[in-house]
Design goal:
The chain is of the alpha/beta class. The chain has 2 domains: 3-162, P-loop containing nucleotide triphosphate hydrolases (Rossmann fold), CATH 3.40.50.300; 201-314. It contains 15 helices and 5 strands. It is globular. 35% of the residues are buried. The chain binds zinc ion. Zinc ion (ZN) is lined by residues 52, 54, 59-60, 63, 65-66.
Length: 316
């Protein structure tokens, strides 16, 4: 899949192809944007386009170099991160070693760092040194959905490439082409993240969230049940923010077509009966604030209790 076939990121892909066309390549790029909008795939394809010699400003996808990059066996393309673990200093040292030797095939050497924000402080420090004294003919591509967590010293040395949520219509088109059921609902629930929209559990997870949310409000579910791991917490906040946003939208517009949880009009209607727009707005701000703080390892149980209190005061 060459760059020009990536879906829903026309401006960003246009920018990348423009960079390839001019041949003015920066030493380090930072691909940033929400999870599931195509950053990692674009980084892979950009790496291919940098190495492939068959197609102008893109990759051909079929030459030996392209095929080896696809299978992860090209000696001049290294990938680290993206495995739900911290990136450690040993991995950064390994890419330093790879970058410091000559290119195997006489072209560029490319390193892709997935989930770059998961570098631990020692790894980030080592990485910064590589950025400060870049080896010849080497290109680094950092990928991150939480780029604000990267040290400013690293961020300031990168060229930022921003990825945005995909338009709903684009997502619907892809889902319909693959005969995925509930395409319209999935397209809105996914919030513009194609990988989310394609997640077979998307609707079930949302239903589970609503069930857990009600149970928490009634005092029959606790933090250990609803927030089993880091991913649960992230997803809970995504759902909760979308839900409270829906309540606000409905409270002010009474227009069900604007809801993310488009199939839940009756529930939304019932939830906003005894609350005010102002209280919901305050609650939403608090959810955003806590989500930011949770990145810094806030105590799970205390945070849950705090949120529950806020929720109960607004949604009786
Ligand atoms: Zn090729």
């Amino acid at each position: 899949m060459p760059l020009n076939s990536l879906i829903g990121q026309d401006d960003t892909i246009g920018l990348l192809r423009g960079i390839l066309k001019t041949g003015v390549i920066a030493h380090c790029y930072l691909f940033s944007g929400e999870d599931g909008v195509g950053k990692t795939l674009a980084a892979h394809e950009f790496a291919k386009a940098l190495i492939c010699r068959e197609t102008e400003a893109d990759s051909c996808g079929v030459c030996s170099a392209c095929r080896r990059i696809d299978s992860g066996t090209h000696p001049d393309v290294q990938v680290i991160g993206g495995d739900d673990r911290q990136i450690k200093i040993d991995q950064v040292r390994l890419i330093e070693t790879c970058l410091s030797r000559k290119s195997f095939e006489g072209g560029l050497k490319v390193v892709v760092v997935k989930d770059a924000d998961t570098m631990n402080p020692a790894a980030a420090n080592a990485f910064l040194k590589t950025l400060e004294e870049p080896p010849d003919s080497s290109i680094l591509i950092l990928v991150s959905s939480r780029s604000d967590l990267l040290p400013e010293t690293i961020r300031s040395r990168t060229q930022k490439i921003l990825f945005y949520p995909l338009p709903k219509t684009e997502i619907e088109k892809v889902l319909s082409a693959q005969s995925v059921p509930d395409a319209e609902l999935r397209a809105v629930l996914s919030g513009g993240r194609l990988s989310k929209a394609l997640d077979p559990n998307l609707c079930r997870d949302r239903d589970e969230f609503l069930k857990g949310f009600d149970m928490a409000l009634r005092g029959t579910a606790d933090a250990d049940q609803l927030w089993k791991d880091r991913q649960d917490i992230d997803e809970w906040f995504d759902h909760a923010i979308a839900w409270i946003r829906d309540l606000m939208v409905y409270k002010s517009s009474k227009n069900p077509s604007l809801l993310v949880n488009a199939d839940q009009e009756a529930r939304v209607k019932n939830a906003v009966k005894d609350t005010t727009l102002k209280a919901l707005s305050k609650l939403l701000s608090e959810l955003f604030r806590l989500r930011q703080l949770l990145r810094f390892n806030l105590n799970k149980h205390l945070t849950f209790q705090h949120i529950l209190m806020q929720l109960k005061s607004v949604l009786r």
